[in-house]
Each structure stands twice: as structure tokens, then as C-alpha cells.
Amino acid sequence: MDQKKKKEHGIVLTGMPVSPGAVVARAYVQDNPGLQWQEPDQARFDPGREGEMRDAFYRAVFQAREELACLARGAGSEVQGEIFAAQREILEDEELLSRIGQAILEERLEPESAIRRVFAAYEALFCKMTDPLIAARVADLQDVKRRLLCICQGGEGQRILPLKEEVILVARDLLPSDMACLDRAHIKGIITEMGGTNSHTAILARSLQIPAISGIQGATRRIPQGILAALDAVAGEVILEPDEVQQARYGKIQEQLLARRREEARYLSRPGSTRDGKVMGMGINIGSGEVSVPGEQYDFVGLLRTEFLYMEHTAPPTEEEQYEVYRKVLRQANGKTVTLRTLDIGGDKALPCLALPREENSFLGSRGLRLCLARPEIFQTQLRAALRASALGDLELLFPMVGSLEEIFQARAWVRKAMEGLAAEGFSYNPHIRMGIMIEVPSIALVADLAAEEVDFASIGTNDLAQYVSAADRMNPGMGPYYQGYSPAMLRLLERIFSAFAARHKPVCVCGEMAGDPQGSVLLAGLGARKLSMDPASLAGVKAALAKVSLEEAKNLAGRCLCLRTQEEILGELVGHESF
Length: 580
Ligand code: PEP
Ligand code: MG
Description:
Layout: H1 3-7, E1 12-14, E2 16-19, E3 22-29, H2 33-36, H3 50-73, H4 78-90, H5 94-107, H6 111-127, H7 132-152, E4 167-171, H8 176-180, E5 187-192, H9 200-208, E6 212-214, H10 219-222, E7 228-232, E8 237-240, H11 244-265, E9 281-286, E10 300-305, H12 307-311, H13 319-333, E11 338-341, H14 368-374, H15 376-390, E12 395-399, H16 405-424, E13 435-439, H17 442-445, H18 448-454, E14 457-460, H19 462-470, H20 488-503, E15 508-510, H21 518-527, E16 531-534, H22 539-547, H23 551-562, H24 567-575
Parallel strand pairs: 3-4, 4-5, 5-6, 9-10, 9-16, 10-11, 11-12, 12-13, 13-14, 14-15, 15-16
Antiparallel strand pairs: 1-8, 2-6, 3-7, 7-8
The site of magnesium ion has 4 residues, from helix 19.
């Protein structure tokens, strides 16, 4: 143990809590070779062995696919299964495979070098993007690359942690297969240097209910192997070598959390409603082609993010590919409404399959619907696929990043055009498909009364709305104090949107993170929300929170919050509310 590490004993390290809970255990600091491999190198083989080398590469691909299929079958949860399925798809990407094949055949690069080089190019492309969904795909790419390299080196692609006691895992970052193969019996907490609330590590930690903190800079260096550590993934703190009083306190936090989870789980299969029986529609947000939630737990798919379709390939998905995915989601939703959000990408959220011009201020650039209006061929393909799927179930269309009524008119015109084309070709579709907008840009929020006249429904994206209302980048941890989702300005705006839509008898849902926060959900109900859509993992907590208050109490709480002057005061009022 070096002196530098010794200095850290007894001190508190802070990071971002990404999966709630608390635990005291010894630290297991993991080396992460997959992420540290040098790349790309240029090892070449002798002429004449091209075919042999290419075949060796394809055998490795075959084995990796088999391993991933096997892991998907044995996955402990649907989320894990989806990750392995997504990784398997990377190994079916023809362009990626043929670029590696070409490097082997034409440049006589060793398969390992060719894999490193081509994967590095893909990773570099993805790394430039700040969208958390795309960032998560980088982890998949790294994971698949590591698997292939391990196989090429004569082993299995899977890396298993040999653990004998309960530990807090400390790593620079965790790859999806690390997470999926986690030794659940021994890993009681996770600390990572990298990753945010939407990283794979965070999503899986939450789904496995393992307390986790991300963003502790230099954690693998600062936390000595085997040291006793107390992790509080509610406050986002780690104490090294806690004393007995601290240990007892952390044990208590975890006990309380587990008791609360047990209690919340009782609400999971019940419909969402307040204590006095006022129904709250409970939707789920999904970012893949799978609905992984039992039907009794949710009322509708409130947000089908379609970006994943465009991330998996180097060319935009075809109409047929999209149609198949939408059809599958509708089938799994089994008669429930599916709200399909058209492609929400652009600016900084670039995609490998789309060559987009660089913009100085990409958050204020060609994003979401604006991009689709500028690239009608992409929009038309998606609209045609969605409209065809609308003949098979209750599908509605949701346009993201709308800023004005003109954009709504243009979007509707493109939908009409797509309908005309489909009709001429003899395809079926729902001619009365409902069309709605995301409310996440202040200019449309402020004219919610006018917008409500033009659309069938709306969905409030509180994540972006807070970003644009407060002019603070939602991805920048340094902007934390300025990015205010519960500011007086947000609350006033939200109330205004709910009342504008209620006056016109048009439904409005909230699909941003605020809807999945138990306290946020009660506040939203009080402000006028009657439909909330969230990550499925949030359903139990939100249903339980709503069931503890009457609608009148929620309205009173919202009324009090609306009179407060700062976000700090509002959060204080929420935390102090007797039902939480
Ligand atoms: C939002 O902005 O609140 C939202 C739901 O959209 P996304 O997080 O996908 O931008
Ligand atoms: Mg948004």
C-alpha cells in the first residue's frame, strides 16, 4: 500500500449516486484490461496466409456470437438479455466485419490488429457524442472487441471475477458483460470513475438493486485494495475505514431502503392512483425494441425512443427493418397504446449513419424534429414504417424538440404525404393516427394553449425543458447547480402546460425523469398531471408514493411549492412532506 493511498484513509470521497442504497464491505479494486489495451497496433503476417487468417477471424466471430447467445439465454434479467442481444448484433454488422476482413486480406494485418484498428475507428466516432444512449453503445463496442481479442488469444471471451467474500467493486468503468456476469452473491456495492446516471453500469446496477456511485475521480488509485469502505449511494459518499458509529449508520440506511423497497413492491401490480382513488396513468419509457415489463404493471408505452434503431448500423434503418421493430413492440404491448417518438437526434447527438454538419452550438442546432424536417428522406422512411405499423395496434406519433406551431404544421404535412404514398401503394395504416408533441422547448411551453389546439396530445420532456429553461447543459456535471428541474420557473411552466391542455380536453403526459421520481410524481399530480411515463424500475416507487397522498394533498403541496422562491426551498418542502 503506498503512502499516497494511506493519506486517504478515513476521508470521504464523493461522486454521483446512480443506484440507491448503502453498504459497508471491503473494496475489491478491479483492473480493467479491456479498456486499457493499447490500440491500434500494426502486426502483419507473411504473404500467403491471407485466407487462413481471415478464416481464423470469422471463427472468432462465430465463437463470440455463440458465447453471447449463451449469455443471453442465461441472463438474470431482461435488461441483461437485451445487452447481450445488442452485442450480438454488433457482430452481425456486415460493414464492420467486412472492414476487418479487408484489413486482413489486403493489408495482411493480424486479425487482432485488424480488430483493434476497426473497432478503434468506430469507438472514436461514438466517443465524440455526448448522448448517453450512444455513449452506452461505446461500452458495448469495447466489450465485444475485448471478447473477440480474448478468443483470438486462445481463451474464452468471458472474464469472471474470482471473489470469495462480500465486496464493494471499484473499477474505472464496467463493461456490460462485467455487469451481466457480476457475482451477485458477493458484489454488494459498486464504485466507478466513469459513467453517469444513464450508463449501462447505472442502469444494470439499478435493475440488480446494487448500490452504486459513479464519477469518483481516481477511485481505483485512491481506494486501496481490501480496505474497509462504507458506501452511501443516496448521498453519493464513500468513507474509507469508517469507524463503528459510521458503519452502524450505513447499515441503517440500507435497512431502511430495503424495507421501503419491500413495501413499494406491493404496489407494483396495482394500477396507479392517489389514496382517494384518482387514477394516474402509468406509462413506461423504452429505448429498445423490447417491452420487458409484465402487462399488469403499466398502462401504456408512453415513450418509445427510436434512436436505438439508428445506432446499431452504419446505414439508417430501412422502412422494413423499422416496421418489424414497431410491429414487435405493438405485439408485446398487447393492445396498450404505444407512443412512438420520431428520431430525436442531431447536433451533438450525431450518429454514425448520418453525416451531419458540425454546428458551433449544437444544443441549439438542428435537433429532433428540425433535423427530420431538414432530412425528409429519413423522416419519410420512419413515418411510413410507423404508419404501416399503426394498422396493427394503437400506435401514436410523438414529435420531439418542437419549438413552434409552424413545425407542427410541417410535420403533419409530411405525415399526410407518407399516408398518400402508402395509400397509392395499397398499404394499410390508421388514417386517424393521433399526433402529439414533446414539450421540452420553452417557446412551445409558453404557447401551450395554442399548441393544444393543433395536436392530439403532448408529452412533457422535463429533462430538456429544464435544460432550456435554465440554459444549463444537462450533460455537464459542472452545471449541476444551474440545471434546475424543480425551479420555480419550471413549476410555473408545468402548471401552465397542464391547465392549457386540460382546458382543451387534450391529454398530456410527463415522460422526463421527474415523472419517475416519487416526490416529483406527487408534485406533478398536484400541478395537474394525470399521466406519467418512466423507466420501468421507477414504477413501484412512484405508485407507492402516489398511493400515500390524496389528490387534494398533492394539490396543496404543489400550491405551497408554487409560492416558494428557490429550488432549494421547493426541494425542502418536498422532502419535508409527511408522506415521504
Ligand atoms: C426529456 O427531454 O425529458 C425526454 C424525455 O427526452 P430525452 O431524455 O430522450 O431527451
Ligand atoms: Mg428530450
